Amino acid sequence: MMTINDVARLLKENDDILILSHHFPDGDTLGSAYALCGALQIMGKRARVECSDEIPNKFLFIKNSVEIQQFEPKYIVSADVADSKLLGSLCEVYGNKIDLCIDHHSRNTSFAKQSYVEGDSAACAEIMYLIVKELINEIPKSIADCLYTGVCTDTGCFKFSNVTARTHKIAAELIALGCDHALINKVMFDTKSRSRIALEKAVLDNLKFEYNGLCATVVLTRDMIASSGAVEDDIDGISSLPRQIEGVAAAVTLRELDSGAYKVSLRTDNALNAAQIAVGFGGGGHAAAAGCTIKDSRENAEKALLNAIGNALKEQNMI
Ligand SMILES: [Mn+2]
User: pTM for the whole thing?
Assistant: First the structure.
């Protein structure tokens, strides 16, 4: 079992280091990767980050926190990547060449030559903070901003059950280092693009309740996505909308795919098991969050789902 010291030693021993983020990049994979890149550059090493997908606008300050350096990599590190497939198109290029994996997913598939995985860490950025502390004496604000973004985004602004006392201690240390915590939280959690708001409006216009308000259904059509100008980042998290409504035990989001099929996201509370309902449609997931894909018309998909949810509610004597 490796220690943070072992990881720091490996990074000190190597040069021309390429750091990889996972596809559909989020605040944690980018914050962790760029924080490490910044620290390595301060140490006088050549370092850069690569990601298969475009970086969403709200994370551009992370990308801009380091110097652009081009070189042939001699050592490859992945940050917040649970499986080499999650490298997206970069998997083909680097999938079997990763020297060191730094991650916090307990389901990590040990695809790298060496791995440092802390499954109970709320964010990869927590681990990266401990590593960066071993690498450089003074952590600049730019690196603290990257790490704070990783921690706050992977914890839903410190609201998820993955948060520990250490999460708050690390956040406190990052604030002491001068990170822009209020601004980062505003941008990450309290700011929505205009296309996101347009999409939410269209989605909520079609909100339907069934079973005395115990079930709420929304539909996300290709038309709504196109007319609102929404990009993938705007669509992320739409399924939390029906779940936020008081009294709703089953929240259903149907998203029309380009193929015409419907991707269903199911969020449940209380006694209802979302995975059990999703399995009936060839899907799966967790007790409170599950999904499936239904290849049928919108009407038929909705009818079948409502039926299954009705049966589950009856089983629990909720209706
Ligand atoms: Mn993460």
Answer: 0.85
